[in-house]
Amino acid sequence: MAHIGNTQSAIWTRFSRSIDLAVVACLAIVAATGAIALSPPAPVAEKTVIVAEISAPPAPKAPSVRQRAPQLQPQFFPWKAPETYTPVLPEAPKPAIPNRQQEAFLTRMRGQTPFRASTHDNLATHYGGNWREDNVSETSSGTLLSIHRVKGESMPYTIAELQSPGKYGYGRYEVIMRPARGSGTVSAFFTFTGAHFGDPHDEVDIEFLGQDTTKVHFNYFRKGKRGAFEGFDLPFDAADADRLYAFEWTPDRITWFIEGQPIYSTPTGDAGIPAAPGKIMMSAWVGKPFIEGWTGKPTFTSGTGAHYSCVSFVPMGGTGPGCGDNYTPPVVLSP
Q1: Do 32 and 25 contact (CB within 8 A), yes or no?
Q2: Where is the GH16 domain (predicted)?
Q3: Which of 174, 203, 248, 259 is catalytic?
Q4: CATH number at residue 138
Q5: In the chain, what is the straight-line distance between the N-terminal and C-terminal CA atoms, in Å?
Q6: Do residues 310 and 176 touch, judged by C-beta distance below 8 A?
Q7: Does the pLDDT of residue 92 top 90, yes or no?
Q8: Tens digits of residue pLDDT in 167-217
Q9: Domain assignment of residue 320, yes or no
Q10: What is the pTM of this model?
């Protein structure tokens, strides 16, 4: 029994140790688990989330006053009763484009003048009649350009035009004239050049519409582009008497005059001022039907016309006689 007892005791001893080790291991695991449970949780790494902010594009800003293009403003002059008049040309630089004909001149529009009559037909233009030399006639005080209704011609009217042989540029242009009366007619004094003369279309105008001769129209073109044209009410009927009209043309401005008084000037800085020298021209005409909205329907009396009693030119910076030198405004009797 003693032998058996010793054997059992050894086995039990080993078993007891195994249990003790297991218990110790379990206790260690429990302790470790408790320690983990009781310890504060490890910080969790934060995920960085990038949110793209989409914003509306900024609204366009209105340009400041300095950024805005300057507005060109023409100059208007109040009407004044005419006084003794002496033309004075402003000081100005020499023309950028040389004038081919720069001598001053004055003609009373009788006898020999520097102008010749146009004689060609106008089938392909806005003119409603053909230019005829027979429509140019001398009077006791000047020259009459008349408009006639005709039969047997290629067009229903004959009209009249005078033009200078040479071209003139910057300077002062004066005319004493009386426009034609009657709806559909146009009377003009102007400088002109264009493709027919080998130039761009440059022009400066004084025009009257026969449907209302208490108004005058000022017009100009540079390379075919029309400038800041204007029309004005007159304190008289221009078709009643010959009166003095003028314009001064310089590289940077055109100013129009009525009886020696400035009436209208082109805007300062206007890039549309004509530059090419042109022919001095006078005309009395009627247009084709497509411009009757401007000229009026042609109800005029055949034989009406525009009368010219003086034309003068003084080059810019030069001297010479002018139509206004001895001009006296006509006396208009009250009805």
Answers
A1: no
A2: 87-317
A3: 203
A4: 2.60.120.200
A5: 175
A6: yes
A7: no
A8: 999 999 999 999 999 999 999 999 999 998 889 999 999 999 999 999 999
A9: no
A10: 0.74
Three-class SS of residue 97? coil
- DSSP per-residue string spanning 284-310: EEEB-GGGHHHH----PPTT-EEEEEE
- Of 268, 53, 283, 68, the closest CA to residue 185 belongs to 283
Strands (E), 194-265: 202-209, 215-222, 225-226, 230-233, 243-250, 253-258, 261-265
**Which residue, among 76, 90, 51, 111, has the nearest Cα to 261 in the 3D structure?**
76
Rounded to whole angstroms, how far apart are CA atoms 149 and 151?
7
Q: How many domains does the chain have?
A: 1
How far, in Å, are 178, 195, 305 from residue 208 at the CA level?
9, 25, 12
- Domain that residue 157 falls in: 99-315
Residue 168 lies in a domain: yes
Arithmetic mean of pLDDT, 272-294: 97
Query: Mean pLDDT of all residues in the chain?
Result: 81
Non-local (6+) Cβ contacts of 252 within 8 A are: 268, 269, 270, 273
The residue written with tokens 């020499």 in the block is 94
**What is the β-pairing status of strands 202-209 and 185-193?**
antiparallel
Alpha carbon distance 294, 275 (integer Å)? 27
The yes-or-no answer on residue 203 being catalytic is: yes
Contacts of 124 (CB under 8 A, 6+ apart): none
From 161, 174, 207, 259, the catalytic residue = 207
DSSP 172: E
